[in-house]
Design brief:
This protein is α/β, with parallel strands linked by helices. Helices cover 36% and strands 17% of the residues. The protein has helices spanning 10-24, 33-46, 105-121, 137-157; strands at 53-56, 69-72, 91-97, 126-131, 164-168, 182-186.
Amino acid sequence: MGFQFSTYSVQELSDCGSAFVTHFAHVKFPNNTRERTKTVLGWFCEVMAPGLQCYGHGQPAGHEFLVDQCHATFQLPTLARCERWDQPCEIRLALECEWGKYRSPGETRLMVLDDAWKVAMVRAIAKAVIFPTHKGKDRQERDRREIVDSLQTLRMQSRDDAPWLWVDLPWIESGDYPRNIAFAILS
């Protein structure tokens, strides 16, 4: 795979974005958002720093823990082990992945922002928001700019100092590979 988190620094978020682009440029996803999410979250779980726990869809808890996925220093309590934690409780990465509604950029933007609120409110060292834009260079750039501007405003208004990685993993029509994936860091 190549990339793996260690400290969840701004530089590592940028390296993560580059590795994500390389990995997913030619991946053919089914037209099923559940499978797209599972594939993306699976990749993020694989690049998690050693020694952490990965919680989220399809991971040990089997459901969301605050956000779609988080990389955490602690184990969630179970019936057998719920009296104490013997290490610091910290979320290193909080991630939301929202596909919105295909061919409906306005609804997609609202759905992405709805999930981004969770990222903004969770205390984590680093954060990530994965979203799609729609086909067409002008449309894609406009949609991306509107979403990213809104993410930046949300980050500022929530007084969040953590760096955010945003990744635009666009919807794609058959045969349009490689994808025009874009990413950047808000810090």
